[in-house]
Amino acid sequence: MALSFSLEHTDADSKARAGKITTAHGEISTPIFMPVGTAGSVKAVTQQQLYQEVKAQIILGNTYHLYLRPGIEILNKAGGLHGFMHWDKPILTDSGGYQVFSLAQSRKIKEEGVLFQSHIDGSRHLFSPEKVMDIQRNIGADIIMAFDECPPGQSEYNYAKNSLMLTQRWLDRCINHLNSTEPLYGYEQNLFPIVQGNQFHDLRKMSCEYVASKQAPGNAIGGLSVGEPEAVMYEITALCCEHLPADKPRYLMGVGTPWNILECISLGVDMFDCVMPTRNGRNGMLFTTNGVINIKNKKWADDFTPIDEGLPNEISHYYTKAYLRHLFVAGELLGLTIASLQNLCFYLWLVSEARKEIIKGTFTSWKNAMTEQLKQRL
To answer: For a disulfide at 339, which of 104, 131, 263, 281, Cβ 3.0-4.6 Å?
Structure first.
């Protein structure tokens, strides 16, 4: 089945909206946060925990990493990533464009595609729009991303413009190739184009209009959260939401902190992903309903209160701050899992609460109060 999106409520005091995305592997209530499972695994967390504790509705995989390991042949034999990792809810795959430009040892951009060397073993590969579509067909994600160039955050105007023109030509090739091939696993995959254009308003507007003309089932905003000031990120996000279709889901790629997510929901974004919950968790930074905790600090050594009494999930109540700090100090792997689960549960709770507030008509006042609370350093 093709992806469908229905708008259920919009906020009177902002652009925030609540909706529902329907895919072949289930429904997704928006706004939504997608845990990042780059190589077929959300780091330090099992699939059972994602189902039962985190209550994830959709997760993200990555074309670049899955292409290199385990490889497309193995994924195809497993029936796609769903079968390989035993996950029967929706999956979105990033095209690998960002990883090609950020991880590869060397790269050469041509009209045909990008020649690069693997960051794992130095082997040489070519990613063309057509090949990236074929890789994602074998992965079998419900939502797949067009191949794009993600230019550096401080690119000059001419570079950003030439890059955008290339991304648009690659988008046409992605669409044409996908339309000329059949799904491998009996269900339709849904291509999201990616808006680029760096920090230049005219390029972003041009990109949004070009992307909108393709009438894709959803659209993504890329090239943000790459080092630009928060104010610029919000400014460009607002501009893109203004020019992207209101009847299609909007996905802001790679963003961000809890307060970033709340602000961007208020601007009209529906979907988010970021490695921050698990990466920061593995380094001892916890996001809680009361603020940010560095669990390694000595102040928590004899704090026997639950990690986060404000979260309605078992793990945040079961373990104490003192015990979790001990696990980190002792180098016990369980600490990484508990911290990752705390943060993922928090992110999914946050977008769920945002949805409730949008439906109630109280989102903006709630968002303002919540943002101030979440930024506190405990």
So the answer is: 281
pLDDT > 90 fraction of the chain, expressed in percent and rounded: 92
**273 classed as catalytic:** yes
pLDDT at 59 over 70: yes
Q: Please check if 154 is assigned to a binding site.
A: no
- Assess whether 94 carries a catalytic annotation: yes
* Paired tokens of 151: 């230019």
Question: Annotated catalytic residue: which of 11, 142, 270, 273?
Answer: 273
Pinpoint the residues of the chain covered by CATH 3.20.20.105. Answer: 4-95+127-274
Helices 258-267 and 333-360 cross at an angle (nearest 10°) of 30
Q: Is the pLDDT of residue 104 over 70?
A: no
| CATH entry, 4-95+127-274, from 3.10.590.10, 3.20.20.105, 3.30.70.20, 3.30.420.10 | 3.20.20.105
Q: Do residues 249 and 271 lie in contact, with contact meaning Cβ atoms separated by under 8 Å?
A: yes
Rounded to two decimals, the pTM is 0.97
